[in-house]
Design brief:
alpha+beta; Thiol Ester Dehydrase, Chain A; 6-stranded antiparallel β-sheet; two-stranded antiparallel sheet; 2 helices; globular
């Protein structure tokens, strides 16, 4: 029996993702992979994964792919925000779901990505495309810049 590998740390701390219980599986150049075990409180009135859970899973997987290094051992981007996202749902999400995000193209300020979610049988549950803007901080109301406190620069 192989030893369980310790959980990976997300590239930045996102309290909402911690609350949902997402698990970071891997981050490689151009790729991010995240998993979640569907629990009752994450389901809709049909008893399957809520669409918002699936969209969030794909959003975070794409964001990790967008921030990932261009080459092994390279630097990750300081931060990205979702500019737009389109999602299609193929089948109900149940059990353990794995979302895989892929960076398709990156410019100096934008990353274009796609993601898919599969169930424990490897069946496609959902697919998304998204555009992400590179950010180093957010503007505050008084004109200052709010720097990310937990960015990995």
């Amino acid at each position: 029996m192989s030893a369980a590998r310790p959980p990976m740390d997300f590239l930045v701390r996102i309290p909402f993702i911690e609350h949902l219980g997402f698990e970071l599986l891997r981050v490689e150049p151009g790729l991010g992979e995240i998993a979640i075990e569907v629990r009752d409180e994450l389901t809709n009135s049909w008893g399957v994964a809520h669409g918002g859970l699936l969209m969030t899973l794909m959003d975070i997987a794409m964001a990790h792919a967008a921030r990932s290094p261009l080459e092994p051992g390279g630097d990750v981007l300081p931060g990205v925000v979702t500019i737009e996202m389109k999602t299609s749902f193929m089948r109900p999400g149940e059990g353990r779901l794995v979302g895989t995000g892929r960076r398709l193209h990156r410019t100096a300020s934008l990353s274009f990505c796609e993601a898919s979610v599969v169930n424990h049988r490897g069946e496609l549950v959902g697919h998304s495309t998204g555009t992400f803007k590179t950010m180093r901080g957010l503007p505050a109301a008084d004109g200052r810049r709010i720097q990310r406190l937990n960015a990995s620069d």
